[in-house]
UniProtKB/TrEMBL annotation:
Gene3D superfamilies: Cytochrome-c3 Hydrogenase, chain B (1.10.645.10). Its EC number is 7.1.1.-. This is NADH-quinone oxidoreductase subunit D. GO terms for cellular component: plasma membrane. One of its GO terms (molecular function) is quinone binding. It is found in: Cell membrane. It comes from Dehalogenimonas formicexedens. It comes from the Bacteria. Pfam families: Complex1_49kDa. PROSITE patterns: COMPLEX1_49K. It catalyses: a quinone + NADH + 5 H(+)(in) = a quinol + NAD(+) + 4 H(+)(out). NDH-1 is composed of 14 different subunits. Subunits NuoB, C, D, E, F, and G constitute the peripheral sector of the complex. It is a peripheral membrane protein. Belongs to the complex I 49 kDa subunit family.
């Protein structure tokens, strides 16, 4: 017997605490089944790109911290690269290595938060998240050691970094690198074969390979769908071509694959960090750059890095003044969200937060 039901619309958000900001779904439901999705952005909008065009180049470095604020070091790196391209600045070898060290530590910290919040979303209340934050705290302490900040670092500068590594940094980092593989194995045993996690994530929210490519998805969302694309390998920047590491990919593009890719990327970041520490040269950490940056009029550039959430790029155009003429961010959280409707259709309301959490967004770089 077929029951005649009437579809209805409900709103989820914009107050949900696990979105790292404010985001709203307007869902059309048939019972508990999602038949249509309207994602609604804009509650956090701060006009950061337009604000940046009214500030000089150097003063915009702290703005990048506040995009994906779980990836501040990598945000610094991408923007500094863009301005260095405009200025023709060569970064000293030691500074390049320090940038890679900070970026890979930041990638690990971001993935730890992403996995922890995702598991919180599917009902593993607090325990895995606190496990992840145990190690993330150690990384934050390392960042605090080099620049005195724990969230928004403002550490990188055009031509290098603001200061060299303190004496105690490398011993503390080496100690952490010795511990992390064991901790990652611990997460793996706790989560990857857990029957509840498997039921909530395996086969759920599949993003087909072709759709991921056509939607310009990036990072673990793209690689979870089986696409082996990582800017550190495919369009090498900084000194990443000097390191040996693998690019983890998924098979089916489901919620579970996106989790596994992030977990494996932590292991690969540890590999990169060990190589960077062993190769770290002596020398200067900051090139000589004018305090008042004025790139040539008419020059423009796009510089991109592989952020924890995917390709993070800055387009910067100069009119010869001390302020950028155009300042635009290619934000991976926003791009990855463009496929959320296709990922949710046909699934139930209970699956929504699992699928949404597996994208791992930060609204600071969406509503920028």
């Amino acid at each position: 017997m077929t029951l005649k039901t009437e579809q209805y619309v409900i709103n989820i958000g914009p107050q949900h605490p696990s979105t790292h900001g404010v985001f709203r779904f307007r869902l059309t439901l048939d019972g508990e089944v999602i038949t249509d999705v309207e994602p609604i952005f804009g509650y956090l909008h701060r006009g950061m790109e337009k604000i940046a065009e009214g500030r000089n180049y150097t003063k915009n470095i702290p703005l990048t911290d506040r995009l994906d604020y779980l990836s501040s070091m990598i945000n610094n790196h991408a923007y500094c690269m863009a301005v260095e391209n405009l200025m023709g600045v060569k970064v000293p070898e030691r500074a390049e290595y320090i940038r890679v060290i900070m970026s890979e530590l930041q990638r690990i910290a971001s993935h730890l938060a992403g996995i922890g919040f995702f598991l919180n979303d599917i009902g593993a209340f607090m325990t895995p998240l606190l496990y992840m934050f145990r190690e993330r705290e150690k990384i934050v302490e390392l960042f605090d050691m080099v620049c005195g900040q724990r969230l928004n670092y403002n550490y990188m500068r055009f031509g290098g970094v603001s200061m060299d590594l303190p004496r105690d940094f490398l011993p503390a980092l080496n100690k952490l690198l010795g511990q992390l593989p064991g901790y990652v194995d611990e997460y793996d045993k706790l989560i990857s074969t857990n029957e509840i996690a498997l039921v909530r994530a395996k086969g759920v929210g599949i993003l087909p390979r072709e759709l991921a490519i056509n939607a310009s998805a990036a990072g673990p969302v793209l690689r979870g769908s089986g696409v082996r694309w990582d800017l550190r390998k495919d369009q090498p920047y900084s000194i990443y071509e000097r390191f040996e590491f693998d690019i983890p990919t998924g098979e089916t593009g489901d919620t579970y694959d996106r989790y596994i890719v992030r977990l494996e990327e932590i292991r690969q970041s540890v590999r990169i960090l060990k190589q960077a520490v062993s190769q770290l040269p002596e020398g200067e950490t900051l090139a000589k750059v004018s305090k008042l940056v004025r790139p040539p009029a008419g020059s423009e550039t796009y510089a991109a890095v592989e952020g924890p959430k995917g390709e993070l790029g800055f387009f910067v155009a100069s009119d010869g003044t001390e302020n950028p003429y155009r300042w635009h961010v290619r934000a991976p959280s926003l791009i990855n969200l463009t496929v959320i409707r296709e990922m949710l259709l046909g699934w139930k309301v209970a699956d929504l937060m699992a699928i949404f959490g597996s994208i791992d967004i930060v609204m600071g770089e969406v509503d920028r």
